[in-house]
Amino acid sequence: MLAATLVGWSRLQFAMTAAYHWIFVPLTLGLSIIVAIMETLYVVKGDDFWKNVAKFWMKIFAINFAVGIATGIILEFEFGTNWSNYSWFVGDIFGAPLAIEGIFAFFMESTFFAVMFFGWNKVSKRFHLASTWLTALGAAISAFWILVANSWMQHPVGTEFNPDTVRSEMVSFWAVVTNPIATSKFFHAVFSGWMTGAVVVAGIGCWYLLKKKETRFAYASIIVACCVGLSGGVATMLTGDSSGVKAAKYQPMKLAAAEGLENGGPRAAFSIVPGVKIPAMLSILATHSVDGYVPGINNIIEGYTDNEGNVELSVAEKMERGSQAIQSLKQYRENKESDPELAAAYLADFRENEKYMGYGYLNAPEDVVPNVPLVYWSFRVMIGLGSFLMLLLIVLAWLSWKKKLENFKWLQVVALLSIPLVYLCGQAGWIVAEVGRQPWTIQDLLPVGVAVSGLNPAAVQTTFFIFASVFALFLVVELSIIVKAIAKGPEL
């Protein structure tokens, strides 16, 4: 019970920190591109109007960027404080992309951000524009390395377990970097960030129209934002399809939970909402074949054979073999000095069952099932809101191009109220990605119960509420500064 409480509070604290940090990341990714396009229009057209538009949104970007840095630092520290067993077990692997992100991407982003924000009239137009684009590129590269680290947790590749050190060690950096899940996750995160930035800019632009002020600025901002948002939205859907196919291949339980699929098979139906299904659609989406086999929750627990004859063991069998692997590893380490021949036999037995070692730490087969209702409805919130926001951006772009948007006050209100919705959409996507892979810290390799630090649950509870208070204060301060900047308006 004590361990469960510790794991629960550690997960809750990390989830809160990650969710709060993700408030700032997508806006950084989206707003950096929007600002770069606006400044490009200034350099190309030579019109100071676009310079002032870019400077205004650059100010909003800077406020968001500063708070995002603070939350990101806290998030990385929690790997060592709350998840020290995880950090010790895979630190050489997980730490490499994070170190690269800090040394190269973050320094690049921060350096050019300084030129971008403080360099007006101090450097040439073209150098300043290059700095703005390099800031956007740095933000994307930073996201790439972080998502490489996260994707390795979803699908561990390029590594090998060392029985002498009892740690996973990297054997191919290239395999870690080119992890198939990392590619889809990176582009999906970046392009969804474009949508976030677009909805925020369009919503604020509509606020100016509602106030009947800065009309030209509002229309210009909305049009640029909608172009970026719609491009990002289409790309997000394409990368989402790729993510679904890879989840079906590498994390079938996540897909089953997202669909609430208890019993799968060929021609699996896609659930729109409970009781409303499209026959065979899930098989098409997950395998790109109408007859593709998609296992359900019960199939994964009980074991199954797919259309190609591949046999997947039941979870109970995996647990048994995982326990055997753990025991053989223990015997190998105890005998490697005194009886090398016996130790070699135990090592061979360990290698035979090594891929199931993580299952040996589970208590029951049902432990592999995540919170199905949470994952199921989060997936629908993500898809539903994403579709609504795409439609909204299309309508806003058309009416803004025709200079008729100011005649539709109700639509301006909807656009303004959609700002929190785009954040809800992004958070729902991360719930699917992270809650959907529970109970694994590293898929099939390390459960959360083994990865957690040996802390007193009361200490984690205390820091949870401290962090919650600090984060709330940060958010209030940031929003108040942004609101004041918006109320002041651009200097045209």
Overview of this protein structure:
The chain is mostly helical and 492 residues long. Helix content is 74%, strand content 6%. It is built from 16 helices and 10 strands. The strands form 5 sheets. The chain has a two-stranded antiparallel ribbon. A two-stranded antiparallel ribbon has the order 3-6.
Keywords for this structure?
single chain, 492 residues, mainly alpha, two-stranded antiparallel ribbon, two-stranded antiparallel sheet, 16 helices, 74% helix
Topology:
Blueprint: H1 2-45, H2 48-81, H3 84-118, H4 125-154, E1 159-162, E2 167-170, H5 173-177, H6 180-210, H7 215-250, H8 252-259, E3 265-266, E4 270-273, E5 276-278, H9 281-287, E6 293-294, H10 297-302, E7 304-305, E8 311-312, H11 315-335, H12 340-353, H13 372-401, H14 409-435, E9 440-442, E10 446-447, H15 448-451, H16 457-488
Antiparallel strand pairs: 1-2, 3-6, 4-5, 7-8, 9-10
Helix pairs in contact: 1-2, 1-4, 1-6, 1-7, 1-14, 1-16, 2-3, 2-16, 3-4, 4-6, 6-7, 6-13, 6-14, 7-8, 7-13, 8-13, 11-12, 13-14
